[in-house]
Amino acid sequence: MPITKGFQALVDEAMAEVKTYSVAEAKAKLADPKVQMVDIRDVRELAAGTVVGAFHAPRGMLEFWVDPASPYHKPLFADESREFILFCGAGWRSALATKTLQDMGMSNVAHIDGGYTEWVKQGAPTETLEERKAKKGA
């Protein structure tokens, strides 16, 4: 069966409907306690590091972790006073994920243009998993 709508068309449609922050805009929100960065990349991608303070919610589990009716629900996502800013490697998966969360009824969600790749390129703060573990142990 031929593909009638490719990934790029899906991403373009999502981008037209979601809030997108530049790296600079997202970085400016890092200190805000009402903002939660959400890394939706695959666990194997985390070896390269992540945004400081980001919560890891793998793309494959995101809808289940967000929905209170799911047995996999994470209470973090029930906090309607927070803004959740998603990111992936390049901004494609996060655009699709942000659109999906909007479709589920969330209005407090956005994503980062260019994803983690652009975040690193612009020198925004990152941490390795080892650095995060050391901070929690301190």
Descriptive keywords:
single chain, 138 residues, alpha/beta, Oxidized Rhodanese, domain 1, five-stranded parallel beta sheet, two-stranded antiparallel ribbon, 6 helices
Description:
- The chain has helices at 7-17, 23-28, 62-66, 92-103, 115-121, 129-137; strands at residues 19-21, 35-39, 50-51, 55-56, 83-87, 109-112, 126-127.
- By secondary structure, it is an alpha/beta fold.
- The chain has a single domain (7-137), classed as 3-Layer(aba) Sandwich (Oxidized Rhodanese, domain 1), CATH 3.40.250.
- The strands form two sheets. The chain has a five-stranded parallel β-sheet, sandwiched between helices. A two-stranded antiparallel sheet has the order 3-7.
- Helix 4 links the parallel strand 5 (83-87) and strand 6.
- Helix 1 (7-17) packs across helix 4.
- The mean pLDDT is 95.
Counting helices, strands and paired strands, the structural category is alpha/beta
CATH superfamily: Rhodanese-like domain
Largest beta-sheet characterization: 5 strands, parallel
CATH topology: Oxidized Rhodanese, domain 1
Architecture, CATH level 2? 3-Layer(aba) Sandwich
| Total strands | 7
- The residue-averaged pLDDT reads 95
How many H/I helical runs?
Answer: 6
Number of domains: 1
Largest beta sheet: what is the strand line-up?
1-6-5-2-4
- Rg on CA atoms, Å: 15 Å
The level-1 CATH class:
Alpha Beta
Uncertain regions spanning at least 5 consecutive residues: none
